[in-house]
Structures are given as structure tokens and as C-alpha cells.
Design a protein that fits this description.
The complex is a heterodimer of chains A (370) and B (94). With 370 residues, chain A is an all-beta fold. Helix content of chain A is 2%, strand content 39%. Chain A contains 2 helices and 28 strands. Chain A has a 4-stranded antiparallel β-sheet, with no helix packed on it. In chain A, β25 and β26 form a beta hairpin. Chain B has 94 residues and is of the alpha+beta class. Chain B has a single domain, classed as Beta-grasp domain (Ubiquitin-like (UB roll)), CATH 3.10.20.30. Helices cover 23% and strands 24% of the residues of chain B. Chain B contains 3 helices and 5 strands. Chain B has a 5-stranded mixed β-sheet, covered by helices on one side. In chain B, α2 crosses α3. Chain B is globular and about 45 Å long. Classes of the chains: A mainly beta (370), B alpha+beta (94). Chains A and B meet through loops of A and α3 of B.
Chain lengths: 370, 94
């Protein structure tokens, strides 16, 4: 019976694991593992024996994939990490996402430079997925501030949605064999053409199984005041698709800023979504007062959730994978900050509390009930 | 006539688990040949030193005795029997 809440926290100095009972009154922290090495992606794979994966981006010795089969008490390297074929000419820089595949031991990894890898043996060997990694657009994508990263992998039967910064949203409808840029309605603010075929700086994409065809996107917003070629492009930062990602429309009206990184869907209500608006210039909380914003009607209206959060003098950033929500009956929201705080938003974000106040800068937070 | 050039490769602590210890005896006439030998005989250790394009990882330095190979002939630096080749992580990070 699943009765433990497991948080994985990828930081600039390794991965931490925090464990609690389902009441979530207090979390016990373990780690860091992969000490001193940045971790940008984690996965708590609850298929079978719970297994935790963490990418370990070693600037000296290259990419590793860490794996724990004892609930995060210890980690070991898998036998190999994703790597490009020798004659490809590209070298792996980082892994930005690890997601479960269809088969029990199947994993998918989104990498930097933007590319997709698949493992069928729980991370011991990897193969590049050529349909997107060698896509005709691949050599035209360019890095955003975080690097040229494939950060979102969403599997939905034979559909696969990928988020690339900067590349945009790519869709496969044949299980990942072939991909097409699918960015109609997705704006870009950093080039004259406001709606290019590809090249958008998508920050994160989310979906819910109960709403087939619907997707939510946090895109790179903050271009309302642009006066150069192509003109202003307000509200391009928070978007929704109702046709499996073939087209997108803005749902940013009502937010204090359409810039942000994560976007999260409530586990039991496909209409309820969460974003963390940031000042586009500084990428920090507007006015130094952090708040999560929630929509309960699919983005038609937004409300501010701030109870328990600092009211002033807080200028942190919440990165694209640093906000998540658990799947308990009354779910809790979690977010980690670049200043090393891990917050829990109890009752779906109604009341926030700082769980850990001084971790290293947080890149990634994932949760599972195991 | 070919002669065997045996050198000692000294590994930093994080790489010893892949190399089986702190020191390895390797037969190679150049630094590149030493890396090529590692690619064949110890591929996991090699992948820690070079990326998949064959380039040496940029935060690592290789010394032949007391000299950084970048001040010699780079990876083409010739080796002599008894040389000590040391791999050292650069002083970087934060």
C-alpha cells in the first residue's frame, strides 16, 4: 500500500530525498547524493519497486545517471548515460528530463543539446531517438539562457509532446518515430516574426489524463512592450491547446506577468492549473512578494495564493521543473527556489510553509506517493 | 624497430573507481595514443576523460611529468618510457 510521500530535490550540489507519511506533517531529509554535482532532472518511478533516477551533470567528468532502489538511502551510477553516436559531432552537456516509458524498464531522457534518448533496461544503456534528435530543424535550434535543452517529455499513447528551449513544441503521433513542429499560436518575442514555425522558447508543458487533447504551456512571455519589428506581443506566455497541441491560445489574462517557468496541473481536476509569475527582466518574484497563481477554470480566471509566503524582500526564481504537486486526495503543491528554500503549499496551495530553508539552489522537485 | 613505451597514468580520486586504482601502466607513444588505449581497454574511464566526439573534457588537464600538455604539443605530445601522466580536474566551479 502506498503510504510514503517521496520528494526528490535536484540542486546545484547534488540530489536530496525528503520522505514523509501521507499526513506530510514533517519531512526527513537525506543527501546530498552525487555530492557537489548539479542535478537538473529526477524521477520517482513508482512502477514496481520504487526507483529514483537523477541526472548528475558533472562538469569535470561528464554526464551520469544515478539510480536508487532503496527509497533514496543510497544511489549508484547506471552502467551508462545517454551519449551521441561518435560520428554525430555533438557532445552531451546535460539531461533536463527523465520520464517513464511504456515498458516497465523503459525510460526517456531529454538532453542538452536538444535531443531525445531512450533506455529499455532501466538506464544501463541508451539509444538516441533520431526522429527528433536528427530532425531537419535540430541544427537550427538555438540555446536559451539555460542552454539548448529538451526539458519536457509527455507521452499520451502514440502521441509524444516535447518542449525545447529554444525550439518550441514538437509533436509525434506515431509513438516517437517522427515529429513535427506544432506551434500555431505560440509566440516568440526575441525575433521579428512573432509567430515562427519553430524556435519558440517554451518553458514547460503539462497535461492531465482526464482532459484528452488539452495541454497547458508556460512559454517565454514578457513581450507586451516590445516596439521593434513585429510589434508588441502581449500575453504569449501562458497558453492552452484543446486539439492535442496542434494549436494554442493565450490564457494569460489576469496574471501579473505572463513570464514564468513551471506550469502544473491539479492531479484530480484538469481545469485547475498553477503558475508562478515572475518579472520578465529579473526573473524574480514581482515586487519581492512571491505568489503562486491558480486557475480553477482552465485559465479563464486566476487567483493569487500567498498565505504563508513572504510578503516582501524575496527575490528568488522558481525554475521550470521546480514546482510539482502530489496525488493525494487533498494534494500539496511544492516548489523550490534558486535561494535553496523548499516550500509546501498545503490544501492545494491554500497555505504555504517552508520545509527546508537553506538547501543549495534548487533546479528540480518531483514527488510521488509510494 | 618498435619499442614499447610504458608510462604511468595517475588518476584523480573520482576516476579511480573506473580505473581500478590510482595508477595504471599504459603502453603509448603519445598522449592521444594513451587516450586511444583507454577507449579500447577501459571505455567507462575513457568517457570520463573525453566526450563522445573524442575531445578531452574541458575542465580536465593532462600533465606529462610536470608540464601541462597544452604547453607542450597537446595530445600529440610524445611520451618517453617512465613518464608519469597525471589527469587533474581544473580549479573551477562555485
Amino acid at each position: 500500500m502506498a503510504d510514503r510521500v517521496m520528494l526528490t530535490i535536484g540542486t546545484k550540489k547534488g540530489v536530496f530525498v525528503a520522505e514523509a507519511s501521507k499526513a506530510r506533517r514533517s519531512f526527513a531529509l537525506r543527501g546530498p547524493f552525487g555530492t557537489g554535482v548539479p542535478v537538473y532532472s529526477t524521477l520517482v518511478d513508482s512502477r514496481g519497486t520504487p526507483t529514483i533516477y537523477a541526472s548528475s551533470c558533472n562538469p569535470f567528468f561528464g554526464m551520469k545517471v544515478l539510480k536508487s532502489t532503496n527509497m533514496g538511502k543510497s544511489f549508484k551510477e547506471t552502467k551508462s548515460a545517454p551519449a551521441f553516436p561518435k560520428d554525430d559531432g555533438r557532445a552531451l552537456v546535460n539531461i533536463w528530463s527523465i520520464e517513464p516509458g511504456k515498458a516497465k524498464k523503459e525510460l526517456w531522457a531529454g538532453a542538452e543539446p536538444a535531443s531525445l534518448f531512450r533506455s529499455y533496461d532501466a538506464g544501463d544503456s541508451w539509444e538516441m531517438v533520431p526522429g527528433i534528435s536528427n530532425h531537419e530543424h535540430a541544427r537550427k535550434w538555438s540555446p536559451g539562457n539555460g542552454g539548448l535543452c529538451m526539458h519536457t517529455i509527455i507521452r499520451d499513447g502514440n502521441r509524444v509532446h516535447l518542449g525545447i528551449s529554444t525550439g518550441g513544441h514538437y509533436l509525434s503521433e506515431d509513438g516517437g518515430e517522427t515529429f513535427s513542429a506544432s506551434n500555431t499560436g505560440v509566440g516568440a518575442g526575441f525575433q521579428p516574426d512573432p509567430y515562427p514555425e519553430f524556435g519558440q522558447c517554451v518553458h514547460k508543458i503539462a497535461r492531465h489524463d482526464a482532459a484528452p487533447g488539452r495541454l497547458y504551456m508556460q512559454n517565454h512571455g514578457g513581450w507586451a512592450d516590445w516596439t521593434g519589428p513585429g510589434g508588441p506581443r502581449p500575453d504569449i506566455g501562458v497558453l492552452r491547446s484543446d486539439d492535442y497541441g496542434h494549436s494554442w491560445r493565450s490564457i494569460a489574462k489576469g496574471l501579473p506577468s505572463d513570464f514564468g517557468f513551471p506550469i502544473v496541473v491539479h492531479p484530480h481536476d484538469a481545469d485547475t492549473i498553477y503558475v508562478m509569475p515572475l518579472e520578465p527582466a529579473t526573473r524574480t518574484c514581482p515586487g519581492g512578494a512571491p505568489a503562486v497563481w491558480r486557475s480553477e477554470n482552465g485559465g479563464d480566471a486566476w487567483s493569487k495564493l500567498k498565505k504563508g509566503l513572504p510578503k516582501k524582500e524575496s527575490y528568488f526564481t522558481i525554475l521550470r521543473d521546480a514546482m510539482t504537486i502530489d496525488e493525494l486526495k487533498t494534494p500539496a503543491l511544492y516548489f523550490g527556489t534558486t535561494t535553496g528554500q523548499l516550500w509546501i503549499g498545503r490544501e492545494g496551495g491554500e497555505k504555504f510553509e517552508c520545509l527546508f530553508d537553506a538547501l543549495p539552489p534548487i533546479h528540480n522537485v518531483k514527488v510521488a506517493v509510494v | 624497430m618498435d619499442t614499447v613505451t610504458t608510462v604511468t597514468l595517475y588518476l584523480p580520486e573520482p576516476l579511480r573507481t573506473y580505473g581500478g586504482g590510482a595508477e595504471l601502466l599504459v603502453s603509448a607513444r603519445t598522449v592521444q595514443a594513451l587516450l586511444d588505449d583507454l577507449e579500447q581497454t577501459r571505455p567507462i574511464l575513457y568517457r570520463n576523460v573525453c566526450d563522445e566526439t573524442g575531445a578531452m573534457r574541458r575542465h580536465l588537464n593532462i600533465f606529462v611529468n610536470a608540464d601541462n600538455v597544452r604547453d607542450l604539443a597537446g595530445l600529440d605530445t610524445a611520451l618517453e618510457p617512465g613518464d608519469v601522466i597525471t589527469i587533474v580536474p581544473a580549479v573551477s566551479g562555485g
